[in-house]
Design goal:
With 160 residues, this protein is an alpha/beta fold. Helix content is 41%, strand content 16%. It has helices at residues 15-30, 40-45, 49-57, 60-63, 83-87, 113-123, 137-145, 151-156, and strands spanning 2-8, 66-70, 73-80, 106-108, 129-130.
Amino acid sequence: MQRTRLIAGSPVRTASDAWTVVVQLLSDTLERSNAVSPGSVAAALTDVRGIGSALTAAGHLDETPLVLVDEGLYVSIRIVRGDNAFTLEEILDPIPGGVTATDDWVLHMTAPDHLAEHLSSAAAGSDHISTAAAPAYQEKAHEAMSLSIDHDALRRIGGN
């Protein structure tokens, strides 16, 4: 299912604090799954902490979201700055669907040209960070639709 999360950036939070909120949101969501080890999400994002904060400070993540993609999860995360940061309604609870997350989750991060090399260098070797644009949501939605519902099991428990 496609979800969107908006996080208040400057002047409500520093760029570093906003990035910390992103890491916490992703950790709280993905680590609900038995397939994702406690502490592994923050560890996977450690190498991109500096560039994540820089992208936040530059306003790039207000215009171009981070996108978390996994089986059953497609989440766009924007860090909103300026006057809009004061008025947005943040939802920082774990994102529904996290309990089904796999250890194959990927956070898609893109950067403007002048920061692209820094992002690529920071993300190099990570199984969980991609500098490529996220796949279109429809692609993931089609995969999720391939799951079937056991109608007989529903009938047995009284679901008609």
